[in-house]
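Inverse folding, one chain.
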């Protein structure tokens, strides 16, 4: 990341959950390059989080690394207190942290649903509740939730995950109406972004063949969409922006 290409500071502070690696890390770096100070959250990947922080500091931005289990209310409260103490404001919340576990129908359990709902729906809701008064104390704010094309196009072996992301999309739309006009709430719905290391080459080709753009997405594709919704779309709220290369058109 070249500091010479960074935008001048905006004075805004963003919290990106799950931002120590993969898509979350790309979002944190993108927002920092766009002029925001960034809070990097992780659950158990401190080394990777510090690496992202160093990249952001090289851009001349303020950054704060916070650890926390977002499925625990007391952990979320402590996280937001640290933001208050160290940065004094919050303007942007990106709910990127999520879990994704294969759940074949012949092995489904109640625990599968709780596991995905706790991390992918309740945890973002909990963070939003903490963010609302802080954003209202400033000049409003912007919330972006990361959903998934699976919220509307379910995966056979990931039903609880799909349910959790569908709930997050409705939370996005409902809160966009409830929190207007001062706080905007939108979502980005990625398609396939990165393959698993153990994904067979034949299966990769099948996935790519179904994407009109002819490739899977990258973390940077998602990060640029988040940046657009946060900084370049002031009259957009309640939107779910697919970033899937056209896959959801089928």
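Residues assigned per position:
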């Amino acid at each position: 990341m070249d500091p010479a290409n960074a935008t001048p500071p905006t004075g805004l502070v963003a919290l990106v959950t799950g931002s120590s690696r993969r898509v979350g890390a790309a979002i944190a770096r993108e927002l920092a390059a766009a002029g925001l100070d960034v809070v990097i959250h992780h659950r158990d990947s401190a080394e990777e989080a510090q690496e992202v922080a160093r990249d952001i500091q090289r851009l001349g931005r303020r950054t704060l690394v916070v650890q926390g289990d977002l499925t625990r209310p007391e952990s979320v409260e402590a996280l937001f207190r640290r933001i208050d103490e160290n940065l004094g404001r919050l303007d942007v919340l990106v709910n990127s942290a999520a879990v994704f576990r294969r759940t074949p129908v012949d092995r489904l359990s109640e625990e599968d649903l709780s596991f995905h709902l706790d991390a992918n729906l309740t945890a973002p809701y909990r963070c939003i509740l903490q963010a609302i008064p802080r954003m209202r104390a400033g000049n409003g704010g912007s919330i972006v939730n990361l959903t998934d094309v699976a919220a509307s196009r379910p995966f056979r072996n990931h039903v609880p995950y799909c349910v959790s992301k569908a709930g997050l999309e409705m939370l996005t739309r409902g809160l966009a109406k409830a929190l207007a006009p001062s706080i905007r709430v939108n979502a980005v719905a990625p398609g396939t972004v990165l393959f698993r290391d153990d994904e067979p080459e034949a299966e990769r080709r099948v996935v790519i063949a179904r994407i009109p753009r002819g490739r899977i997405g990258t973390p940077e594709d998602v990060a640029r969409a988040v940046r657009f919704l946060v900084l370049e779309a002031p009259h957009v709220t309640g939107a779910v922006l697919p970033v899937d290369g056209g896959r959801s058109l089928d």
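The chain has one domain: 3-242. The domain at 3-242 is CATH 3.40.50.720 (Rossmann fold).
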